[in-house]
Amino acid sequence: MSEQFDTIVIGMGPGGEVAASRLLAAGQRVAAIEKELIGGECGYWACIPSKTLLRPPEARGEVERAAGVDGARLDWPATRAWRDDMIRHLDDGNQVTGYEKSGATVVKGASRITGPGTVEVDGRTLRAAHLVIATGSDAVLPPVDGLDTVPVWTNREATTLTEIPDRVVMLGGSAVGSELGGFLHRFGARVTIVERSATLLSREEPRVGELLGERMRAEGIDVRTGVTATAARRDGADVVLALDDGSQLRCDVVVVGAGRRPRTADLGLDAIGVTPGPKGEITVDEHCQAADGVWAIGDVTAIMPFTHVAKYQARIATDAILGRPHPAGYGGIPRVVFTDPEVAAVGLTTAQADRQGRRTVTAELDLAGALARPWTYEQDPWGHLGLLADPDHGVLLGAWAVAPMAGEWIHQAALAVRTAIPIAVLLDQVAQFPTYSEGFLAALEKLDVSSARG
């Protein structure tokens, strides 16, 4: 006998949680399916534990750079204990109980779609008018010969570790590699980052990766760009990695941050006429709809693999389900890497604008040379801000910053990009003194956009 619902949510990470909560609040009968833990990758093995682990060394660095204060030290057992509290000791019992009290039917187990509006999980058959697929993604292992014969960590092992290894090689200089590499280095590991592109964070402006690499090298991290690992082997207790430049690296563990793949295998998409794309992704329209009565949100769509995008897509999909559709827009969504200093970006890169045939102008600002706030914040301050503008239309196309707390103040540029605020209006803004946000006005003044000044 089947159980009937209005909507079945498959996958209860951040996107699935927002979807289920909004639908429950609207009075729907909701089945929430999760094969692991409610809260998903973000809550237990990614965003929450990584940012928790990054904060203590960041705070120590702030103390070391501030005038008139000293004595900060790192305490790994205390950090680890707080991390364990933050990830609920990998126990989602309270979350299950909370959703059940809200009226949801929570089913734990691997699910398979067997037909339109029909899902089988844990020996039960569930039916609904709507399916919301929010199954997330899995870490991808790079094609390195012998990698399967040596100790390898993905983000899961790296964010739930109990002891800091002595020597680590990070394969990939993406957000994962840069964040976790910095955390491990500051807790005492000897870290080497291997990135095949010319700079770290290769999807951002090259200048961003160049600046971050400069800071990480200055701190003592061995950053190697433009090289690729070709083979891995054991040599006694050591892991030996061969690189394509002829060099070798020895370490205790390899941590991979080489991308992720949408989690759609064995989901039964063929039963509802959905064919995954080349990366395994589910293709959706502007309302996050993949087929009649089928919606997909978050990493599984491969549109923008961020928690905040998954939560946004959940709002888009549920509004459509509830009869108030409006299209999703992905312009002006911030991208933050929680290194120290933080990296924040929004909008297009110069290369992306070039591919669109846009004429652009750029400006870069040395924040310490232009503002008072960096000097009140730390001794020997450092930070950079960059803007990308379209002089023909007088609007910002993109922005980036490598600086303290950049993830907090990038939203000023995010709003400008998302809503196409005219640069003439931005030039008339008044920022609080002294703040890092003042940098936007100083950088705007450097842009060669004379036609935008009114």
Note down, in words, how this protein is organized.
Helix 1 packs parallel to helix 9 and helix 3 packs across helix 7. Strand 17 and strand 18 form a beta hairpin. The strands form five sheets. Strands 1, 2, 3, 4, 5, 6, 17 and 18 form an eight-stranded mixed sheet that branches. The chain is α/β, with parallel strands linked by helices and 454 residues long. The chain folds into three domains: 146 residues, FAD/NAD(P)-binding domain (3-Layer(bba) Sandwich); 112 residues, 3-Layer(bba) Sandwich (FAD/NAD(P)-binding domain); 119 residues, FAD/NAD-linked reductase, C-terminal dimerisation domain (Enolase-like, domain 1). It contains 16 helices and 23 strands.
Helix and strand arrangement:
Blueprint: E1 2-10, H1 14-25, E2 30-34, H2 40-45, H3 47-65, H4 76-86, H5 93-101, E3 105-108, E4 111-115, E5 118-121, E6 124-133, E7 137-139, E8 152-153, H6 155-159, E9 167-171, H7 175-186, E10 190-195, H8 206-219, E11 222-225, E12 229-235, E13 238-243, E14 248-251, E15 253-256, E16 260-262, E17 289-291, E18 294-296, H9 307-321, E19 335-337, E20 342-347, H10 350-355, E21 361-366, H11 367-370, H12 373-377, E22 384-390, E23 395-403, H13 406-409, H14 411-419, H15 423-426, H16 438-446
Parallel strand pairs: 1-2, 1-6, 2-3, 6-18, 8-15, 9-10, 9-15, 10-11
Antiparallel strand pairs: 4-5, 5-6, 7-16, 12-13, 13-14, 17-18, 19-20, 20-23, 21-22, 22-23
Helix pairs in contact: 1-9, 3-4, 3-7
